[in-house]
Amino acid sequence: MATIFTKIINGEIPSYKVAEDENFIAFLDINPNAKGHTLCVPKQEVDKLFDLDENTYLELMKFSRKVAEALKKTVPCKRIGMAVIGLEVPHVHVHLIPLNTMSEMTFTNKISMSSEALTTLSEEIRKQLSQTV
Ligand code: AMP
């Protein structure tokens, strides 16, 4: 059965998309650790990060860095944290999290954001990315 992320990639369910190219997509996490928590996902449906072929793995890191740079310019924070977990959704994804405190990397403290706030934020990150040469 297709993962929830494949359904997002196929446009079957909505997402707060921030970036997309031929092989990858990035969208806001709907249950964020912190404002700007973003997931970068290869379109290829593979469960575990280290099972990706080497090229897709390296390209995912490249894509994630581009998104992280735009995120850092959009959301005030000390730095962007990165994590790969995958215990909930068996489809590789890189978590990018704007950090001000260590607790924002715990995945137990969540913040609440309205749909309107998520939409506005995704637009701001997209705009920032479009200005990246
Ligand atoms: P994990 O698989 O443990 O790395 O966690 C999966 C992450 O995906 C969690 O942070 C969820 O909040 C997030 N998530 C699950 N469904 C969606 C969705 N439809 N849109 C955006 N994020 C999601």
UniProtKB/TrEMBL annotation:
One of its GO terms (biological process) is nucleotide metabolic process. GO terms for molecular function: catalytic activity. Transmembrane segments: none annotated. It comes from the Bacteria. PROSITE patterns: HIT_2 (PS51084). The active site is at residue 93. SUPFAM superfamilies: HIT-like (SSF54197). A motif (Histidine triad motif) lies at residues 91-95. Residues 4-107 form the HIT domain. This is Histidine triad (HIT) family protein.
